[in-house]
Amino acid sequence: MMIKPPASNGKTRRVRKAGLVVFCLGLLLGVLALSLPGLDSGIAHAAELADTGADTATYQPAPKLTAADYPTIKGVNSRIAVWLAAQLHLWFAAFVLAVPIFVFIIEAIGMGTRDKRYDNMAYEFIKVSITAYSFTAILGGLLTFLLVLFYPHLFQYMSSIFKESMFYYALLFFLESATLYLYYYGWHWLQGGFRKWVHLSLGLLLNAVGTLLMFLANAWVTFMMSPAGVDPAGVFSGDAWAAIHNFLWNPINIHRVIANIAYGGSIVGAYAAFKFLSARKSEQRAHYDWMGYNANFIAISALLPLPFAGYYLTAEIYAYSQQMGITLMGGVFAWLFIIQAVLIGTLFLSANYYLWCGMGRSDGAVRYHKYIKYLAIVIVGAFLVWFTPHTLVLTNEELKALGGPYHKYLGPLGIMPAKNTAVNIMILFTTLSFIFYRRANKVATVSWASAGNAIQIALFTAGILNIFFLGVYHGYFTNTVYKVAASIPQVLTTLTIIVTSTAIDAFMYRGAKQVAPLHWGRVSDRSQYALFLLAVAFTWLMGLMGYIRSGIRQHWHVTNVFRDASPDAFTPGLGYAANVVSVGTILFMAMVIFVFWIADVSSRKTAADAYWKTPPA
Amino acid sequence: MKIPRLLQAVGVIVGIYAGFVLVFDYLLGQVIPSSLLSMYMFFVIAGVFMVYTFTEESARELVAPIKALVEDPSKKRIRNVVFILIPLLVAGFTYQRMSPSFEAPVELRSIHPAPPATVKAYGKRYDLATLKNPFRKYEKAKPEKFRELVREGGDIYIQNCQYCHGDKLDGRGPYAAGLNPTPLNFQDVGTIAQLQESFLFWRIATGGPGLPKEAAPWISSMPVWQDFLTEEEIWKVILFLYDYTGRRPRSWEHE
What is the pLDDT at residue B108? Predict the structure, then answer.
């Protein structure tokens, strides 16, 4: 077990100073935004209205702009600058909002089990996120600067509607920073008894504030997609809650909370892999192997319900606007969805591979090796269905041979019922991988072990049949209402199997006999690269899907209300967009490696005794 | 005799590839597109290597012949052959991919173009988010009238649409072979069953020239039917399309 010494005083001061600088920067930005000459009417005017209680008629409609209304800086592409700043800010924000969620849970587990290892691990997780927190704030400031510089009228319009939430967002950021620093720096101070409870409560507060911050920012983003509280000309009704609580706000909130946890887990998993691969001592390898396993567990636990949250969001987008829905999955962005499907499948493959490799930690796992190939066949098979496109890319010869662009057998795999069935099967077999992994070093000793196994087999069999029935019958032989609705019982079937079989397993293996000890650290380097792959695939995926979410507005700043008249109002080609996202991913991963390295540097010490004068006796 | 793991892995991959070709191209009579087959095989290969490398022992056995080929002095002759063959294969593959051909480039065509928020037809502007088939209400309220409307829709279809879309609505009308892309197959689960009736109204009324500029260049020989049919006739044809195929239009309401 490695217990890391707390950060040195020098570093402490540096991080504090950085936090202060970042906050002042944010405050300065706010002041600057209010006093910019181009922004004289909107914000100040809106504030005035609030004071006088003016009625809705006094709000201005969305401006009708021309290309000349967008400031430019020679040599800078404003869209790419905003795009990258927003994306990098979001990646870091997702990471730093997620880490406190599972740090809180791990700390609570540590308190419940009184196992100090959990407390140490939670501390190490939060330590990684501290530098990332500064990056989040800096990039948030940069994004605001860029928006004010390049899209002043949009910023003015948005801030005239969201002035209150933007103001409270800034204040909440104070509270978030204060709570985070207290939570991190007070970790070793607030130990034992009542103090530990105070510390845990701080963690809860940190999460509450962080989630609220994200929900507020989500409101601005979703307002641009599905505006509410404004008339068709964009005149604000004055009801700020209506604008916040727009059609897509909650679907995005749910999706982002779950995705953030999965993402945060994958990034700290990559950190553990980084430390594992660079560790020189076997106890270090053991520690970081254990840490990587826990991080992967968190990532996978959140990944399992994520496709459902994504499907809910997409169904709501479709319900909000047929145009957006078709643009998203049937039109110009459809091929990015195929890349998305490939990346999601990659996440599942790498997560499973990590679990299979992890079985090597115990010699008892040999019993389960023969099943792995069957798991792989089903998971890869489901994956192939999952990414089969609706519109096939056909050569002229193939087109002639098929007699048209429709494939009798592959065509039906291109629509959502097939995808939903496939992803549920993938999730169930990933759960099976996990069950095998958990059983690797143990043998159940309870008298009802064979009955328990039989129940689990029956549960999986019945559940899989039900998922197939729902997918095939409702997906292909009923109308779209039932087709979309059938995904809910499919999800519930999957969740029921996961919860019930995990519960049965937990009881069955209570007091189980250990057949071979678990050797932490005895795992291949390949498995650690699978953890890296998980983090990179997540990052890339978020970038691509984030672009699609934003891009389906097409030539609108605010859908159907505020037209984008800038020279960049066109929807970029798929290759171009993928390149921008890929560059963003590389930049982010480079910054993350820096975060990992800096967390490592804080514990290094160089002996330079000869450099210093000997203190007088 | 135990087959070396590397040979096993290669055998499995080749077997799966042959299986795809055999099943789709020969048994089912519907070729598997090469683009899709490449994607499938990439992940099949990944899956096979995952299975063969998840234990240390198996991973070592898998790479042992490759290691021996590179490191074992007794394998010098075969090493030289392999080291010449591999670059030659790569060069041949690259040449084949890069050499110009008379084949038209493949197209990334989407089945459903994204509809605009509003559409102009018959001198009016329609909001596609709220536009409904005015005759759909008769399906429950006046079934006899509804049957009559469907029959009229069928007549209009046979007089105007079947030449391309086919008398079985399967996209194989007498003129279909002369068109590229071929006309839409309404029997396919991925076409009208996925769409709201307002989408069909837009596509029929404004035809190829009414396709959105955002996703240009579109190629479609669909006529602008608002020039030939009345608004009511279009709605009747839409009733017929769903009735004949047994599909239901996309909607958000339970029945």
Answer: 64
What are the boundaries of each domain within chain B?
A: 5-98, 118-245
Burial of A362 (0-12, 13-18, 19+ CB in 10 A): buried
Share of chain A above pLDDT 70, in %: 91
- State pLDDT tens for residues A73-132: 999 999 999 999 999 999 999 999 989 998 999 999 999 999 998 999 899 889 888 889
Instruction: Quote the CA–CA distance of A487 and A474 in Å, as a whole number.
Output: 9
Do B43 and A380 lie within an 8 Å CB cutoff?
Answer: yes
Angle between helices A449-469 and A487-508 (to 10 degrees): 170
CA distance B192 to chain A (A): 11
Nearest residue, CB atoms, B248 vs list A323, A391, A479: A479
A572 close to B (CB below 8 A): no
* Degrees, nearest 5: CA angle A81-A85-A87: 120
Cis check: omega of the bond before B100, within 30 degrees of 0: no
Q: Which of A223-232, A408-417, A464-473, B57-66 has the lowest mean pLDDT?
A: A408-417
Q: How confident is the model at residue A11 (pLDDT cuts 50, 70, 90)?
A: very low
Query: Taking CB atoms and an 8 Å limit, are A391 and B108 in contact across chains?
Result: yes
Answer yes or no: do A414 and B190 touch at CB < 8 A: yes
CB A452 within 8 A of CB A413: no
Say yes or no for a CB contact (<8 Å) between B117 and A321.
yes
Instruction: Provide the pLDDT for residue A36.
Output: 38
Contacts of B16 in chain A (CB under 8 A): none
- Mean pLDDT for A201-224 is 96
CB-CB under 8 Å, B46 with A349: yes
Q: Which residues of B touch A352 (CB under 8 A)?
A: 50
Give chain B positions within 8 Å (CB) of A319: 252
End-to-end Cα separation, chain A, in angstroms: 39
pLDDT, tens digit, 9 for 90 and up, residues B17-68:
999 999 999 999 999 999 999 999 999 999 999 999 999 999 999 999 999 9
| Nearest to A393, CA basis, from A574, A221, A169 | A574
| CA separation for the pair B22, B13 (Å, rounded) | 14
A229: left (phi over 0), alpha (psi -120 to 50) or beta: left
Q: Span A61-69, mean pLDDT?
A: 94
Q: What is the mean pLDDT of chain B?
A: 90
Distance CA A364, CA A387 (A): 36
Alpha-carbon distance of A73 to A66, in angstroms, equals 17
Using CB atoms, pick whichever of B51, B109, B196 lies closest to residue A405: B109
Q: Of the candidates B111, B102, B113, B237, which has an alpha carbon nearest to the alpha carbon of residue B181? A: B111
Q: Are A368 and A440 in contact (CB under 8 A)?
A: yes
Measured distance CA(B204)–CA(B157) in Å, rounded: 12
Mutate to test the interface with A, among B34, B109, B110 (most CBs of A within 10 A): B110
pLDDT band per the 50, 70, 90 thresholds, residue A511: confident
Q: Do B47 and A377 make contact, defined as CB atoms within 8 angstroms?
A: yes
Q: What is the mean pLDDT of residues A385-394?
A: 87
When the candidates are 1.10.760.10, 2.30.110.10, 1.25.40.10, 3.40.1160.10, the CATH number that belongs to B118-245 is: 1.10.760.10
Q: Where are the alpha helices (DSSP H) in B4-142?
A: 5-21, 34-53, 56-71, 76-98, 138-141
A575 touches B: beta carbon within 8 Å: no
Mean pLDDT of A591-601: 88
Instruction: Write out pLDDT tens, residues B207-251.
Output: 988 888 765 666 788 999 999 999 999 999 999 999 999 888 887
Which amino acid makes up residue A197? W
The answer to whether A558 and A231 have CB atoms below 8 angstroms apart is no
